[in-house]
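W.,

You were right to be curious about this one. When I first looked at the sequence I had no strong expectations either way, so I just let the prediction run and decided to look at it fresh. Below is the sequence, 146 residues in total, followed by the output.
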Amino acid sequence: METNASTNSTNGMELNQNSVKYLSSIQKWTYFFAIVGFIGIVILLLVGLLAKAIFSAINPQMGAGATVLGVIYIVFALIYFFPVLYLYRFSRFAKQAIQENNANLMEEALRNFKLHFHFIGVLTIAILALYFVILLGYVLGTIFLG
């Protein structure tokens, strides 16, 4: 099997000072958003774990519905964890790569950045598909059930 030599070696791309400055700025913002994301996950988990008590205090007739809401909050927290983790890893690796001028660390940072957006993209597609199915169900239900 023939391989292309250019895919097996580095292409020699180097970052100029402006690119490093932009990456440094991105790193700071992604770190901020990752920390805010982790705080949001903790809040979601707390609300999920305490849902029965919280929602029963608001509306005593909620009963099992409060438990279902609690489970939904916990599931959302678990789904939200992975993109936030990837964003955090990008931030930490990018900071270290910039400080040490290390291409391997920058590669790992960019891999995590890609994983973050890959996860968000797949999740967006799944949510849009769910919206379509719900809308289709509503339209078909309205047509056939009056």
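Here's what jumped out at me. The helical segments are 5-8, 17-49, 51-58, 64-100, 103-145. And, maybe more interesting for your project: The chain has one domain: 22-145.

Coffee later to discuss?

I.
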